[in-house]
Amino acid sequence: MNEEKILEYLKIISKIKEEEKNFENVEDFIFNIQNLLKKVSLKIFIEKNKITVSSENLENLDKKDNLFIHIITEDVNQFLEGKNYSNLFNELTISLIEQKNVEDLLDAILEKLEKIIPYTSANIALLENDALYYLSFRGYEKYGVEDFMRNFKMDKREFYTLKTVMETQKPLFVENTDEYPNWVIIPETQWIKSHLMIPIIYENKILGLISFDSDTPYGFKEEDIEKVYPLLPLLGIALENAKLYEKLKKELEERIIAEEKYKRSFYQIVKLASDIVEMKDPYTSGHQKRVARISVIIGKELGLSQEKIRALAISSLLHDIGKIGIPSEILNKPSSLNPLERRFINIHPEIGYNLLRKIEIISDIAPIVYQHHERINGSGYPKGLKGEEILLEAKIIGVADVFEAMTSHRPYRSALPIDMAIKELVENKGTLYDPDVVDAFLKSLKEGRIIL
Ligand SMILES: [Fe+2]
Questions:
Q1: How far is the CA of 373 from the centre of ligand 1 (A)?
Q2: What's the gap in Å between 364 CA and the centre of ligand 1?
Q3: What is the pLDDT of residue 284?
Q4: Distance in angstroms (rounded) separating the CA atoms of residues 142 and 67
Q5: Rounded mean pLDDT of 403-429?
Q6: Residue-wise pLDDT tens digits, 88-127
Q7: CATH, domain 103-248, list 3.30.450.40, 3.40.1190.10, 3.40.50.300, 3.90.180.10
Q8: Are strands 194-202 and 172-174 parallel, antiparallel or unpaired?
Q9: Which residues face 122 on adjacent strands?
């Protein structure tokens, strides 16, 4: 090689450096370098995000040519990697600032890393109680093991690699899994021939791991670890967020379970109270449950809110709870009642009200129970309230109660036919009973929603 050519090469190198300084985008940069290299009959090839410099006339290249080619290749590749890398880092930082959810962010990290680390598959996992849970993974679909990854829990007691990384807090490099003495072979991952595991440390604690697999031995280089390092603080924050999110999710699930248990227990207690009353008044056994069923159907037909339906269900289950304070001999009297006994019976809404208003969580149903014998023309008891003065829920229970009582057998009379009970409601619609409630009831009955 003559000196002239060496000078030419040096000029090209300095012009490439200038191009690097003025870099705006990859396409223009490569195009300009192509032009520079043409002068020395060299060409650029791009493969897998890497450039290769070569000549059409390979035989004519001497040692110095090859050295030049090597320098240019290394320099340009390193420069481009740096560019990719800083772009990547910026993009990911922006993703975090934009508060994308943690899973999306981790997916984006793995996707971008694919461009700078040639992996077959990769994953980011959260470490909890000495085991790894995979939050994000990529590339495993090629081997049909996505579901396996989704459910897989890697325990440090079973996996030497994980144990080592946890103890040393340093990356672990498995160049060839066939030669690695403590590599655990499982059928789903036996295609992994080389492996790289990097701990994600946040505030001196390992929060998780980012791992890369390759289906060929020696698939990773030491430099690959360097490429991931600047991303680790970002991954640390992401995993910390994921951990907090998991904790919140768990707490919420526990709360929901506790609330459901509480609700179940609450209804069991309401039913117990309902059963106690009916035990005292066996002639009306099952009456309150049937009234509750009918009331809820009417309430739904009238479009009541869920909260009101709940209050309606509880108040109808307990509407006669005041009978607990009425002497059994009056309640269970098989013949008709005298006026004094009737007055006694008629105080059961007040007794019920006084019992229920003391229970904070159902104090809202006490006024409904109090009013369930009021009638819209003021002929009811205990107060003789009229029309709008009566709560809708109480009017609903009033209709359901009358209909259920009329169509049930009593020791002093037999059950009335349904037609007769309907007739009683229709005839007194607008005087005793709220017209809308009666209409909603009749519609539900006609459409077969009320089953007796
Ligand atoms: Fe009653």
A1: 6
A2: 18
A3: 72
A4: 40
A5: 86
A6: 666 666 665 564 577 888 888 888 888 788 899 999 999 9
A7: 3.30.450.40
A8: antiparallel
A9: 138, 212
